[in-house]
Amino acid sequence: MEVTDPRAADEEQRLIQRVVLASDTQAFDALTRPYLGRLRGYLRGLTMHDSDADDRLQTTLIKAWQELHRFDHRGRFVAWLFRIAHREFLQGARAGKRYHQAMARYDGQSDGMSQSGDQAAAAMDIETILGSMHGDSRAAIILSRAVGLTHAEIAQAMDKPLGSVKSLLTRATQEIVAQYG
Hints:
Elements: H1 6-22, H2 25-32, H3 36-47, H4 50-67, H5 77-95, H6 99-106, H7 117-131, H8 135-146, H9 151-158, H10 162-180
Helix pairs in contact: 1-2, 3-4, 3-5, 3-8, 4-5, 5-6, 5-9, 8-10, 9-10
């Protein structure tokens, strides 16, 4: 349920209330289901591993379930959800057994994972581009280009000032164009 009109926003609000007031798991599923693919894709872009992305997605959903009562409606729910995912990635990278590998990738180094086939080659090209970027730039580009969040929503998700997000996106885009045409 992408919130693009007042009726959808009202429905989102009703679902949030059902979760907060009645611990309604079906409402939580209806609230989060539309964002699962984009959340997983975002986390996959940051972790560069399917299993790590799945782990972070699971912890994101658990945290969202536990903290939904704190959602203040100042921004869109989707941005709040991606903020949790971003924080879970950072916490998982620090605490996980792959700490050094994840942080090296997050800081722009690639581990050169190998795959086969045309899809794998395209994925590797994307991973190479993302792997060459600084962590905050990578996160901002994924949230903008792959997830489709606005600059304000990215700022909310990354807990950064709007101007910083705009600068990150500008520099990241310039870097991609300079390196890859």
